[in-house]
Every structure is written in structure tokens, then in C-alpha cells.
Design brief:
The protein is an alpha/beta fold. It contains six helices and nine strands; from the N terminus they run βαβαββαβαβαββαβ. The chain is 26% helix and 21% strand.
């Protein structure tokens, strides 16, 4: 199931350029089947998600959030499967990991080497459920370093668009081996390794 794990819209993410409808249109046109909307430090209400879902029945539109950590505002955690506003009050990785795991959500460290010095949570031995590998905000050099990091830490890697505009759609994604019927099915898929990572560069069919 072709899935976008990291996506922003201009409804709640000031850095995003496109409306929710524009982003869903381009995802559907590129053959995506599921998407997690992960605004910066904001969540969509159930009614908003339901309204957008009606407009794009060919997509499974799931909730999520990208949380900024207090110790380092470059350290961001994705919590996939929730739109609970209580997460907006969590500002350190230990709290986010505990809450996410207790509720069955997947917690991903976004662009872990945006700063080459690394992520404070990893230095403290706090491991997310997965690390972002290739995204529109993390190029091949840093992705190679993240791959080495993941091998050392025994943490899964995922590709994600980190899409703020249509140009980031269909660049990096995962495909799960089973349909995602529920938002938290992504946790089982990633932790069990039941997915593949894809990248669209020279060869659209390249799989990593």
C-alpha cells in the first residue's frame, strides 16, 4: 500500500505552501493509497479529517503530528495514528515515546541528521520506533550516515516525503505489504518489517 508518512499543509503548518486539497490531489494522482497528515505542533480534528476523506475516497487519510522537542527545536518526532491534542503538551522525547507506545502509535525521528552533530535523544539512549532515511529535507549524504546509525542502533528506516508542496510528492515513500485498515496498522507494518522503501530518482522503480 503506497503510503506517505510525513506531510504538511498550509492549514496548520506555516512552512507549507499548498492546501490540503492540493496535496491530496497530487497524492491520488501519483497512486498513493494512504497518507498521514503530520502538521507542525498541530492536529486535525476528527470532523476536518472526515470532511477531507469524503473528497478523496481513493486515499486512506490518517491522523498524525510532528512534535518539536524543547531541548532542541531541530529535533522533531512524528507520532503516526493520533490527533489527540494532549500530545501538543509533550515536549521531550521520553514523554512522547511513552505516550505513543502505550497507545499503539508509531513514533519516528524525523530527519535525524538535519544537524550533523546528531539528535539529543539518541545521545541519551532514547530510541524511536524508526528513523527517517530519505526525505525531501534529507539528502543522500546524510541518509548514508543515518543508515549507518540505524544499523548500529537496530532501528528500522523509513522513507517519507516530508512534503510541504506538490514537488515533494512521489519522491520518497514506503509500500506496506498489507492494507492499512486502521491508523495504527503502520506500527505493526514497520516494526515487523512488512514494507519496502522506494525512491524516485533516475529509475522510478528503484527500491531501497
Amino acid at each position: 500500500m503506497k503510503t506517505e508518512l510525513h506531510l504538511h499543509t498550509n492549514r496548520y503548518s506555516p512552512c507549507a505552501k499548498s492546501t490540503p486539497e492540493e496535496m491530496m490531489f497530487w497524492l491520488a494522482a501519483a497512486g498513493y493509497e494512504a497518507v498521514y497528515i503530520t502538521e507542525h505542533d498541530a492536529v486535525w480534528a476528527d470532523g476536518e479529517l472526515a470532511s477531507l476523506q469524503v473528497k478523496f475516497p481513493q486515499l486512506r487519510i490518517f491522523p498524525g503530528v510532528e512534535l518539536t522537542m524543547a531541548e532542541d527545536d531541530m529535533e522533531h518526532l512524528l507520532v503516526l495514528g493520533t490527533n489527540d491534542p494532549a500530545y501538543l503538551d509533550l515536549h521531550n522525547p521520553q514523554e512522547v515515546l511513552a505516550a505513543g507506545r502505550s497507545e499503539g502509535h508509531l513514533v519516528v525521528l524525523a530527519h535525524p541528521l538535519r544537524k550533523l552533530c546528531g539528535a539529543p535523544m539518541l545521545e541519551k539512549g532514547l530510541l524511536p520506533d524508526a528513523l527517517e532515511h530519505r526525505t525531501c529535507s534529507q539528502g543522500p549524504h546524510r541518509a548514508r550516515l543515518v543508515e549507518e546509525m540505524a544499523e548500529d542502533l537496530h532501528v528500522p528506516l523509513v522513507h517519507a516525503g516530508d512534503a510541504h508542496n506538490p514537488e515533494c510528492v512521489d519522491q520518497f515513500w514506503i509500500e506496506t505489504w498489507q492494507p492499512l485498515a486502521h491508523p495504527d496498522d503502520i506500527r505493526d507494518a514497520v516494526l515487523s518489517g512488512a514494507y519496502d522503501r522506494f525512491i524516485r530518482e533516475a529509475d522510478p522503480a528503484t527500491m531501497l
